[in-house]
Every structure is written in structure tokens, then in C-alpha cells.
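# step 3/5: fold
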Amino acid sequence: LDAPVSSVALRKSGDYVITLGTRFAALKWKEQLVTTITQVDKDKPNNRFNDGKVDPAGRYFAGTMAEEIRPAVLERHQGSLYTLFSDLSVVKHFDQVDISNGLDWSLDHKTFFYIDSLSYSVDAFDYDLQTGKIDNRRSIYRLEKEESIPDGMCIDTEGKLWVACYDGGRVIRLDPETGKRLQTVKLPVDKTTSCCFGGKDYSEMYVTSASDGMDKEWLSRQPQAGGVFKITGLGVKGVPPYPFAG
């Protein structure tokens, strides 16, 4: 492809939708065919999509950021958060985003959780499932120094959030009601980037990591950097992904 693929979602009608560069696009896997649905941030040629996920009603939420000069170093406040609706229309929720990242919804579908990485915060919004509108933004957890930068995020069946900590070498479990950290799982790499549940019953956690920007000395100390890790025995399960309804 001609641009980085930053997120992939299942599509109710079959195959996938993806975020590609600054485009929402349809992917037909067997045909190896990608068609553009719509483009965003047309006035910002240095931008690209980052994380994206489908909401419980089948809308595709995804946000943008400026291309990085080096990892976590970029022109700030260039990104926005968007939703692709099932009729293939797009709404922009807000702009001034640094690195649009982890996102998920509460089990009762009344809260939307979101991370703008360089805010060092996990935020919550009131969420209207009927319309897909979000408002009343607030911070529910501020990362501690050793946790570093919040990146990808997912929710478990107990309604607790799991956040991968970039440069923190860990995944943390948070209670969004109390704002308390409940658990820390450390990994053998620093640059943990995202997490999701998988496996037959969604009891396994998969964690991605990065090696970008690491020199030879760093890579010799962390040879598994850039790998995907599986964590078992957490005692909780994840929520299956929602397919895009369009």
C-alpha cells in the first residue's frame, strides 16, 4: 500500500475497513483490493491516522496525528478525532490532538474512553449510543512518571481498562470509576504500544511493542522489541470487537 495502515476493523458485510494514511478505506482481502471511502485532514499533508476502533453501534472512531520526526516527537496539536458512520459520512468531534490513541466504550455504552498520548491522561466522555455524540470530557487517570506515555487501550468484561504504556514497558489495569490503578503487568520491552484480548474465549491478552528509534545497543538489551506478546492467566476476559455497520 502507499501509506501506513494504522487500524483495522471487521465489516458486517464481510471483509474489513481500515485507516490508511488519512483515509478511511475498504479492504477486500482475497482480491487484495483497497478502495477509499473518504479522506480527512486534506489541509494537513503531514498527517496520518493512528488508532481506531468500532463502537457498539457499528460506527468507526479513529483519530489523526502529525507524522513523527522520531518516536513521540512531532508537530503538536495537528490531529483530530473522527467517526465514520454506517452511511459512510464522517463527523469530526474535536481537533488540537497530539497523538490520537487508545479508545473504547464502557459496558453500558454510556461512556467513551480516549487517550491523547502526550496529555499523559486517560479521558472519559459522556456517550450517546443513539447518535454517536460525545461530550463532557474529563480525565479519569493521570499516568505516573514510570508509566510514561499512555498508548493503546482496551476494556475487559468487568468494565476495567487496560492501557499499554509506551516507554513504560508495561500494561496497567485501571478502574474508570475510582481512577485507581488495580494491576501492573511488566513486559521485557520498554516500548509497549497496544493491547487487546483474543483467543477462543478472549481470556488471552495480546500486547504489541515497537522497535522504531532504537539504536543497536538498545536492541541488544531488548532483542524482543517490536514483538507481539501473549499474556495468560489474568483471570479476566475481553469484549469481542464490534464490526463496522456500513
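# step 4/5: annotate
The first helix runs from residue 216 to 221.
# step 5/5: archive (pending)
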